[in-house]
Design the sequence.
């Protein structure tokens, strides 16, 4: 049975027909995510209000967020990029949805201990797999702190696979929350300096069960205090896998680690080890050795090779290095015939003097090999590497090699840069949608947020992979992730122009700009700042076009909060003035008019900035210079927005403005006449503006009536698509029975948009309580027959789309 949650409703129990009872009397059904959801259907006792009742009993694992690197030799492997990309195109799993809800509401659901930490309800109970995932998602979202980690102190959760990478928690919180559990894996990669390596080891060793049974420990990029002595890993006698990449790990520590009786996999990359001779102690059990960029190694090449030669159980060896160091260790290793007899994986990326012939000969002598790393070497282009069945190559000679490199080296910035550079070249003319590759690019960006070269090259690759047509085939969630990472890169490198250009170029993609979720407010700030930089005309056009669309996607409140709004309006008006003076109605000019129109929509602040920057005078000049209806409709659309602002509408009651509006009222182009009529309707509805101009007001109203009567049906088509954020500016006009012309225009406008997009605007009528006003018009004795007819038509359309809508408090409508 699955529990479905809905805001304001209690869980509803649905028992599928294929459910079967387990030994506990629970209905169990296997679902496609690999999660079994179960609940008790018999009624001897009430079900506890527990986390398990929310999540079901989850057995097995389904990756909903990108997991940490798998630890154990028998651990479930990381999903490949292809699998991850498929997940991006699928709905979120039920388990992850529930976990996200729990994490978002943790403060509400938990009680507080005297020390200020959180405590779960005592009667809650989490299955171990769900508890592990709960912690992983909390860590992923950055929600694991001393305050929240305390929920793992109690008996509600039993943890085995603990992932706290990059978490900021103290030693005390770590020991209290996690060292009481029976852990078999711990990923403490890059945890905050408040939790150094010696304290992690000490905490783990405080639990005798962990001492004997912890199998995997990942401490990559974790800090060690300068005054620390030997780390005493040898106390963790159950360890099979240890990774201390980028840690202050010395030769003495290696000697200690080599004593571990079950050690099978060791990563000492970028450590301070100077001598690896201690590895001879574990030569009969070590199966995987990674020593990438072992920069302090003081042994000669023959001495190093002599140690490696004795490690006859090795299945994997990684001696890759930075290309700039021109290490030839790999070159000498490839010449050895009596070395690594059982190896199936060899990584020599970055090695110097590596040739196709040497690598091919080495592999032919070891036919069981399944992987070779050749990125940043001169090898990899031979046909042998594509025809050898079962061999995977991380390199730069083909898309498959680049993909493998991006996947293998996601945590190594030196190789990530190289792989991304090769990818950019390979995808420059890409015509095939490749979501799996884009996912790998996103992972690289996330893992190296402060590496400028990674971020810049990745942004260029993302552009290549999401060109207009290609973006349509990408999952929206993946595009959202990449777009958010681009904006994160902008914040980290605010002064790097080319990175900013790449981000701006990505926003010109209509698929991303319209369909993809991202922070529109941040995007608008960025684009407006760019707009004011006076860049080259092409980039200016892009910035203006993006602004015109983003402006519609911001709420009026957000628009008012934009610090860049004043400068943006000023810059846009300067563009309009320049183009008008040059009599140039190009794409930039049209986008600029549209941007100003959209920015002022429902935004009194933007309208005020427009007035203060001589916008009216500039727009009068536009009307006097251009006669194209596409330009006229945009100008009048903006003036409509100003007319709706009561504090500013008086600025439009001038001879110059009214002369142009009245002349355009009679335009043959429907949308031009429509917008001119709207301005007149809003202006004439406020009698205070016409105290000394009443005759002119009555004349305008007569012209307005005549114009509307000559219009075709409200369902007619217009060249310009009319849209409204709200009907609220129409409501004062609807109630204006003393000026039926004003009321008639408002009804015509509402009927027009309701007939074009009923799902949006009929819903708006309900949410903004506009139905009552329409009913009032139907029943009011002073309403004209034409007004009553249009009001009835709108209500008829409403009935068609909401047949089951009940409205007891409004006027009676037959359903």
Sequence:
């Amino acid at each position: 049975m699955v529990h479905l949650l809905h805001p304001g409703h209690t869980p509803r129990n649905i028992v599928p027909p294929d459910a079967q009872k387990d030994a506990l009397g629970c209905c169990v059904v296997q679902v496609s995510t690999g999660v079994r959801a179960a609940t008790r259907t018999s009624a001897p006792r009430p079900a506890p209000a527990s986390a398990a009742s929310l999540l079901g009993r989850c057995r097995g694992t389904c990756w909903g967020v990108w997991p940490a690197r798998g630890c154990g030799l028998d651990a479930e492997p990381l999903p490949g990029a292809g699998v991850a990309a498929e997940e991006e195109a699928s709905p979120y799993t039920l388990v992850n949805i529930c976990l996200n809800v729990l994490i978002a509401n943790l403060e509400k659901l938990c009680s507080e201990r005297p020390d200020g930490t959180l405590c779960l309800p005592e009667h809650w109970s989490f299955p171990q797999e769900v508890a592990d995932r709960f912690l992983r998602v909390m860590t992923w979202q950055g929600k694991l702190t001393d305050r929240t980690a305390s929920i793992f102190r109690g008996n509600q959760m039993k943890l085995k696979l603990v992932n706290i990478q990059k978490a900021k928690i103290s030693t005390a919180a770590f020991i209290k929350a996690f060292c009481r559990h029976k852990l078999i894996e711990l990923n403490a990669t890059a945890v905050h300096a408040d939790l150094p390596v010696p304290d992690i080891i000490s905490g783990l060793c405080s639990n005798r069960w962990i001492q004997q049974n912890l199998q995997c420990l990942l401490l990559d990029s974790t800090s060690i205090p300068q005054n620390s002595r030997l780390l005493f890993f040898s106390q963790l006698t159950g360890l099979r896998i240890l990774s201390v990449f980028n840690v202050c790990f010395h030769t003495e520590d290696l000697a200690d680690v080599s004593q571990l009786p079950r050690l099978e996999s060791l990563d000492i990359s970028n450590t301070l080890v100077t001598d690896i001779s201690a590895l001879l102690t574990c030569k009969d059990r070590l199966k995987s050795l990674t020593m990438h960029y072992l920069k302090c190694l003081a042994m000669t090449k023959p001495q190093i090779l002599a140690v490696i030669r004795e490690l006859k159980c090795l299945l994997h060896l990684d001696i890759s290095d930075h290309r700039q160091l021109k290490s030839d260790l790999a070159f000498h290793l490839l010449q050895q015939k009596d070395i690594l007899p059982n190896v199936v994986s060899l990584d020599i990326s970055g090695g110097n003097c590596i040739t196709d012939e040497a690598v091919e000969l080495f592999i032919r002598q070891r036919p069981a090999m399944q992987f070779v790393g050749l990125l940043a070497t001169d090898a990899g282009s031979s046909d042998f590497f594509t025809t050898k069945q079962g061999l995977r190559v991380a390199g730069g000679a083909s898309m498959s090699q680049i993909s493998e490199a991006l996947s293998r080296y996601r945590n190594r910035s030196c190789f990530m840069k190289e792989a991304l550079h090769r990818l950019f070249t390979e995808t420059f003319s890409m015509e095939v949608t490749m979501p799996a590759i884009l996912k790998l690019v996103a992972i690289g960006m996330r893992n190296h947020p402060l590496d400028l070269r990674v971020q810049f090259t990745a942004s260029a690759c993302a552009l290549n992979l999401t060109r207009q047509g290609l973006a349509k085939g990408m999952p929206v969630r993946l595009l959202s992730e990449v777009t958010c990472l681009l904006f994160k890169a902008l914040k980290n490198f605010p002064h790097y122009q080319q990175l900013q250009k790449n981000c701006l170029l990505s926003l010109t993609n209509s698929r991303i700009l319209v369909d993809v979720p991202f922070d529109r407010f941040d995007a608008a700030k960025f684009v407006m700042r760019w707009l004011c930089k006076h860049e080259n005309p092409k980039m200016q056009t892009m910035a203006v076009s993006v602004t015109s669309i983003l402006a519609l996607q911001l709420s009026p409140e957000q628009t008012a909060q934009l610090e860049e709004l004043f400068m943006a309006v000023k810059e846009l008006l300067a563009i309009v003035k320049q183009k008008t003076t040059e009599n140039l109605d190009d794409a930039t000019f049209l986008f600029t008019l549209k941007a100003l129109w959209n920015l002022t929509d429902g935004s009194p602040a933007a309208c005020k900035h427009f007035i203060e920057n001589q916008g009216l005078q500039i727009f009068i000049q536009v009307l006097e210079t251009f006669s194209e209806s596409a330009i006229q409709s945009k100008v009048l659309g903006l003036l409509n927005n100003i007319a709706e602002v009561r504090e500013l509408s008086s600025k439009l009651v001038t001879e110059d403005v009214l002369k142009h509006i009245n002349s355009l009222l009679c335009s043959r182009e429907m949308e031009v006449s429509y917008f001119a009529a709207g301005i007149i309707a809003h202006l004439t509805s406020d009698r205070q503006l016409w105290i000394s101009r009443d005759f002119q007001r009555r004349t305008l109203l007569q012209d307005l009536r005549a114009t509307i009567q000559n219009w075709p049906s409200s369902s007619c088509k217009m060249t310009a698509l009319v849209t409204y954020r709200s009907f609220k500016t129409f409501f004062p006009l609807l109630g204006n029975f003393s000026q039926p012309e004003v009321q008639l225009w408002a009804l015509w406008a509402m009927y027009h948009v309701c007939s074009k997009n009923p799902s949006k605007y009929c819903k708006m009528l309900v949410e903004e309580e506009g139905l009552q006003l329409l009913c009032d018009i139907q029943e009011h004795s002073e309403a004209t027959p034409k007004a009553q007819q249009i009001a009835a038509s709108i209500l008829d359309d409403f009935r068609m789309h909401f047949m089951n809508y009940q409205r007891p408090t409004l006027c009676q409508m037959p359903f």
